[in-house]
Amino acid sequence: MMMRRPVLILLLFILFILEGTVVPWLIPDSWQTRIVPNLVYIVILFVSIYNHRHTALVLGIVFGIMHDIVFYGQIMGTYSFAMGLSAYLMGFIFQAPRAPMPIMMTAIILGSLLLDSTLFGIYKLFQLNHTSYDWALVHHILPDLFVHFVFGLMIYVPLRSQLEKISKLNQKEKAA
Amino acid sequence: MFVILIGLVMFIALMGFTLGPRTTLSWPEKFLRDTVGFVQNIFYKPAGYIAGLFEDIGNMKDIHKENEELKIALAQYTREKARFNFMESENIELKTALNFTKAQLEKNNYEHHIAQVVSVNTDPNNRSLVIDIGERDGVKVDMSVTSVDGLVGVVSKVSNFTSTVKLITTMDVKDPNTNAIAVTSLNNHKTFGIIESYDEKTDTLLMTGIKEDDPLKEKDTIVSSGSGGLYPQGMIIGTVDSVQVGEMGLLRTATISPSANFVDWKQLFVVFTPEVLE
User: Key word Mitochondrion present in the record (chain A) (predicted)?
Assistant: First the structure.
């Protein structure tokens, strides 16, 4: 039972690796420049809802920093900021240990929109992109949202049961 | 509330700090990049092979036709190679006769080093990819990276065993870190223009500063001219889609569709330029 939390971190790390290596091969060529699935972020959202928003904040910042450093093109800190902040906010609004599926899916939809919009906003702020928001919305934010939603549906059942076990573990530790 | 405010300020400071021209990385960054790069390397190649296998089965019937075309191209290449060798040796003789210095002689003597892609970031705001050669292999920041088809980008960050490539699709006039490419036409070296921005909406590069009497026309292949320093000479960039009168009316602009296709990355070449002695 004590092994669950390291397993979660390991799962996130493997997802992070898959995101940059296997996922681009799965996406059809014409969509490769448009869909940017952030699978790690979806798992962090689950943590944020079913566990605690502070855990999600830390995970978001850590994995965001990792993304920033590995794919360091022009600027660093955008992903850690966007992932940490949006995961925290989603947890702040929706956090409930017994949240039913529709609430979780709403959190994924809003969280995905918030993440991509925050990223867009930061790049706009530093004048690193020169497209308009409505174009970005149609061109990659909405397709992204769809992929995130499907991925969320796929991992909902197994991930939720694991996270609930972790939460129970936390409560036991507190009680003891 | 106070903590959030401090966090926000810290992040903006971090972004501002890393935005400028920062060439070297600190050791924690290098360590993380190399570790992650090593793990990514294990995953990327097999995934590519499997995806490539399905693609190959799909392309099976085109192979015969492609083979014919390649044979013709090879024959032409062999004929031109003989001519090229003569011209090159004559050129070197003339240069030595004119007492060129060693640095001048070796100026356009580039080496192409092959590199495997280990991971890709498709984020439209910051498109970059990671390759498996780094500082140990002599890669430096700002080296050009090409695929078999044409120029792909420049090395933006280097750590010991991996480097990050910033794609030319992130080129932007307003970005202080973007270096413009001086370009010319493959067929007619009188053409001169500058490429410094990429239009995401149409997936084309914009070539500006073309003179009115310029012989540039549609379907011309555009290569880097090598003047200006950063980009080596003769990197294939793309073909001309259309030529228009520019905003000011005096100079013309052209839209260029890049010849490298920015999907399904496998091998890339890093162009090593000869060391300039100071």
Answer: no
Residue B231 has pLDDT above 80, yes or no: yes
pLDDT tens digits for B67-117? 888 999 999 999 889 888 999 889 888 888 888 777 777 777 788 888 988
> In this complex, which of B15, B122, B126 lies closest to A32 when CB atoms are compared?
B122
Task: Kindly determine whether residue A33 and residue B122, on different chains, have CB atoms separated by under 8 Å.
Answer: yes
A37 CA: distance to closest CA in chain B (Å): 9
Residue B94 has phi, psi (to 5 degrees) of -65, -40
Cβ–Cβ below 8 Å for B124 and A35: no
Whole-angstrom distance, CA of residue A136 vs CA of residue A119: 11
Task: Please name each of the domains of chain A with its CATH number.
Answer: 4-164 (1.10.1760)
Cβ pair B37:A70 closer than 8 A: yes
CATH of region B61-170+263-272, choose from 2.40.10.340, 3.40.50.2300, 3.40.50.880, 2.60.40.1180: 2.40.10.340
Arithmetic mean of pLDDT over chain B:
83
| Per CATH, domain B181-258 is 3.40.50.20 | no
Token couple for B8: 């926000």
Answer whether residue B23 shows pLDDT above 50.
yes
**Token couple for B182:** 């001086």
pLDDT-derived band at A1, boundaries 50, 70, 90: very low
Residue B211, judged by CB atoms within 10 A of its CB (0-12, 13-18, 19+), counts as middle
Most A-contacting residue of B125, B165, B201 (CB-CB within 10 A), to test interface: B125
* Residues B49, B174 contacting (CB under 8 angstroms): no
Question: To the nearest whole angstrom, how far is the Cα of A58 from the nearest Cα of chain B?
Answer: 12
Asked if B50's CB is within 8 angstroms of A74's CB, the reply is no
pLDDT of B59 higher than 60: yes
What is the token pair recorded at A170?
């936390």
pLDDT at A169: 77
